[in-house]
């Protein structure tokens, strides 16, 4: 998968791709990430990418021209499956959306700032709008990083053990069951006996029951279907 991220603060984005699973996905050649500084696409002498909004009101708006130039240059080089704008009024990110995006080949992520982008950008270029939750960030960059993290770990071959992404919370509209590791007893606190019994079918049933109970308690809304 190739991910092109358009931003006014590329420095905010780089380090998460230099560690852990996202770094490994790039090292394995499964993911390519390219950053595009919007200020490199402005004809303005001050590298300005925002302006006052028509009609008055507080807050600056990101101008269409540099965004158009950047997106058009990228689109001239390859086809994109999705051009995603990170915005608090987009559809709320969930595991289903992450699964869909993980199947795509080339995507562009546009990070907004200030009051957002000129509506014509959204009307003309954007194919999908995603929010990471009902709160407002200073810009779309952290949202783009969260989207990248959740999508990249689903790409086949990125995680060492394929099944571990499949057993994540939310993957079947269910939260994950509790997990334990050695020692089997610590300060008198014991691991549930079933987990050390070696009886795989019983362990599976126990995990399913635990996942169901945990989901019922914490997120009954996930069970409504
Ligand atoms: N930009 C500002 N707030 C955001 C949010 N909640 N999700 C995605 N992008 C944003």
Automatic annotation (TrEMBL):
The gene is trmD. It is an enzyme of class 2 (transferase). This is tRNA (guanine-N(1)-)-methyltransferase. Residues 1-224 form the tRNA methyltransferase TRMD/TRM10-type domain. One of its GO terms (molecular function) is tRNA (guanine(37)-N1)-methyltransferase activity. Gene3D superfamilies: 3.40.1280.10, tRNA(m1g37)methyltransferase, domain 2. It comes from Leeuwenhoekiella aestuarii. S-adenosyl-L-methionine binds at residues 112, 132-137. Its EC number is 2.1.1.228. It comes from the Bacteria. GO terms for biological process: tRNA N1-guanine methylation. Keywords: Cytoplasm, Methyltransferase, S-adenosyl-L-methionine, Transferase, tRNA processing. It is found in: Cytoplasm. Pfam families: tRNA_m1G_MT. The keyword tRNA processing applies. Homodimer. It catalyses: guanosine(37) in tRNA + S-adenosyl-L-methionine = N(1)-methylguanosine(37) in tRNA + S-adenosyl-L-homocysteine + H(+). One of its GO terms (cellular component) is cytosol. Belongs to the RNA methyltransferase TrmD family.
């Amino acid at each position: 998968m190739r991910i092109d991220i358009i931003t006014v603060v590329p420095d905010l984005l780089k380090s998460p791709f230099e560690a852990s699973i996202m770094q490994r996905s790039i090292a394995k050649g499964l993911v390519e990430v390219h950053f595009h500084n919007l200020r490199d696409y402005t004809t303005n002498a001050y590298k300005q990418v925002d302006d006052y909004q028509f009609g008055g009101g507080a807050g600056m708006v990101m101008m269409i021209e540099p965004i158009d130039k950047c997106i058009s240059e990228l689109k001239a080089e390859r086809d994109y499956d999705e051009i995603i704008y990170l915005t608090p009024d987009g559809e709320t990110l969930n595991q289903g959306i992450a699964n869909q995006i993980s199947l795509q080949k080339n995507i562009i992520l546009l990070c907004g700032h200030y009051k957002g982008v000129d509506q014509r950008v959204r009307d003309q270029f954007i194919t999908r709008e995603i929010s990471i939750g009902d709160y407002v960030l200073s810009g779309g960059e952290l949202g783009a990083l969260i989207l990248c993290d959740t999508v990249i770990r689903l790409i086949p071959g990125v995680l060492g053990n394929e099944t571990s992404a499949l057993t994540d919370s939310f993957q079947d509209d269910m939260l994950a069951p509790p997990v334990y590791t050695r020692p089997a007893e610590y300060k008198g606190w014991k691991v549930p006996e079933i987990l050390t019994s070696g009886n795989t079918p019983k362990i599976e049933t126990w995990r399913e029951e635990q996942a169901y109970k945990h989901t019922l308690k914490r997120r009954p809304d996930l069970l409504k279907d």
